[in-house]
């Protein structure tokens, strides 16, 4: 049997990559029964003769959106303009990555469309303070491209972001052999038009870059009590608050509030935390008679 990685799964059809060759496969019924759904990113054992997947190897991780496995890092892609730059969505997507214990970094595209980079540089510094890299990128000038290529080398990187931020355009720029369909931005709708319909793993620099469908919104499957655990930058406060179950709102002795006062966590990040908190429900009903 051969070992390979599922690089595409669409319409019940699976393609595996092994030894620089591609194989069209289908899973045995027993595999689906024991292991469940076969996902892009799965490392599998397969029979060349029957073109069947015989076993799904142990996964390092699994994401529900997009449905993929064995991701090394997540590239959170946003745009400086069209769609509008959204720190809230960036922080929300970073929290999503941290929920699954996958290290994220940020790429901000279309910086050539700005009169100056002051706001982007400030945001870059804001995230660097709490341990997240931000690459400022332009398709037109190719600014940030070399830095990005170095970051992708040898890793399995999932590209995730709003429709229209330029994921597929960037992927095409990485390798002339990639010919991902590129959607247009609709000013009337205020968002991009979907072109990427499936998840696909594209071999790049001893690793893979994973293209995935864009989204217009992202929901966090969390309760209010859990958000602080995964919110970017809050990990530095773990175990330091006066109350063990501190939610960093009005409690005394809150370490997060101290970080804001010291300038190690931005006020903007904290306001985003409050907004996200408002979107979530309590795990347990409180103040119930």
Structure description:
By secondary structure, the chain is an alpha/beta fold. It folds into three domains: 2-59, OB fold (Dihydrolipoamide Acetyltransferase, E2P), CATH 2.40.50; 63-211, P-loop containing nucleotide triphosphate hydrolases (Rossmann fold, 3-Layer(aba) Sandwich); 224-279, Ribonucleotide Reductase Protein R1, domain 1. Helix content is 26%, strand content 26%. It has eight helices and 15 strands. The protein has helices at 29-35, 87-99, 118-128, 145-152, 167-174, 224-230, 255-262, 267-279, and strands spanning 2-10, 13-18, 21-27, 43-47, 52-56, 62-64, 67-69, 73-79, 103-109, 134-136, 156-161, 185-186, 191-192, 200-204, 207-211. The strands form four sheets. The chain has a six-stranded mixed beta sheet, with helices on both faces. The protein has a five-stranded mixed barrel with strand order 1-2-3-5-4. A two-stranded antiparallel sheet has the order 6-7.
What descriptors fit this protein?
289 residues, alpha/beta, six-stranded mixed β-sheet, Ribonucleotide Reductase Protein R1, domain 1, five-stranded mixed beta barrel, Rossmann fold, OB fold (Dihydrolipoamide Acetyltransferase, E2P), single chain, 15 strands
